[in-house]
Design brief:
The protein is an alpha/beta fold and 295 residues long. It has 15 helices and nine strands.
Length: 295
């Protein structure tokens, strides 16, 4: 496939979907207007249909892909085997995986990855959003963020997947701090842009301009009718607009028990976390909260 992959990465519930919506407006539309269907142009890496080719290579491994040590052997092969939708030389992929190595198997390499954008969000707010999304209590959600072994199941669409439903491939998310460290302090030596979720929602116009400049300076891209696209992206990625669209049409990434576009605010934790919960998050993540000015 060559060096086409461009990752859209974040810890869960940190703004990945909003960023994908913005990139959809820049790369996959003529006028910058974004629909939920358009956002699917930037798909999730961790979907089990991507594993189908392994069955022909090694059946024993295929039926043991619930073991991360086995799955990690195929991370890079999966990335080399994908028929990605290439736009202006980029194959955009969403991931919540930590940028890790398991048994010397790297999640990705600079030979496969063209670049990435990483979104970081205040972990106190992440704990609340993840609680609502996963149907966890706040305490369970904070425990998830603090656990270096936290994992997520790959999305299994049996219509497209050869994998039996009782096999659950996993992605290693790790703790919030390990996740942030892995994507912001690695030595891959490829173009990357680190964005704070809080800037994304409070100064979106500036961030969109910054994103457009990042692609221009690093990859020589040119965005036609940028001013029109900027105006329409701002309108159609407005939180209330997207929340209304979810109410009217649903959103495939939402869970049955909650809306996906729920609050879209920063510093929710001030009204929701109790003192003990707040301190647990801060004591576990002090170094990277300081680094990103969350104190």
């Amino acid at each position: 496939m060559g060096k086409h992959i461009f990752w859209i990465s974040s810890y869960p519930k940190s703004g990945n979907t909003l960023l994908r919506a913005i990139l959809t407006g820049l790369f996959f539309s003529n006028d910058g207007r974004v629909t939920f269907k358009d956002i699917e142009n930037i798909g999730l890496f961790e979907t089990t249909r991507r594993l189908n080719f392994i069955k022909a290579i090694n059946k024993e491994h295929f039926y043991n892909l619930g073991d991360l040590k086995i799955l990690s052997k195929y991370w890079q092969k999966i990335q080399m085997n994908q028929e990605l939708k290439i736009k202006k030389g980029f194959g955009f992929l969403k991931t919540h995986s930590c940028l890790v190595s398991i048994k010397n198997n790297l999640f990705t390499t600079k030979d496969l990855t063209k670049g990435y954008i990483y979104v970081v969000r205040d972990p106190r707010d992440v704990s609340i959003s993840w609680s609502k999304h996963s149907n966890y209590s706040i305490e369970e959600s904070i425990d998830f963020l603090c656990n270096s072994l936290s994992v997520l199941k790959w999305r299994n669409k049996s219509r497209y997947s050869l994998l039996p439903k009782n096999i659950f491939p996993l992605s290693l998310v790790s703790s919030w701090s390990e996740h942030v460290k892995s994507w912001t302090e690695n030595n891959m030596g490829i173009p990357r842009l680190i964005i704070k979720y809080e800037d994304l929602i409070t100064n979106k116009e500036m961030i969109i301009i910054q994103i457009n400049k990042f692609f221009q300076e690093n990859f020589g891209t040119k965005t036609n009718n940028f001013e029109e696209k900027l105006k329409n992206i701002l309108e159609t990625t407005n939180f209330n607009y997207m929340k209304e669209m979810e109410t009217k049409n649903g959103f495939r990434e939402a869970m049955p028990w909650t809306k996906f576009f729920r609050m879209g605010k920063k510093e929710q934790w001030k009204d929701i976390l109790n003192k003990k919960q707040k301190l647990k998050v801060e004591e576990n993540f002090r170094e990277y909260m300081n680094k990103f000015n969350y104190y």
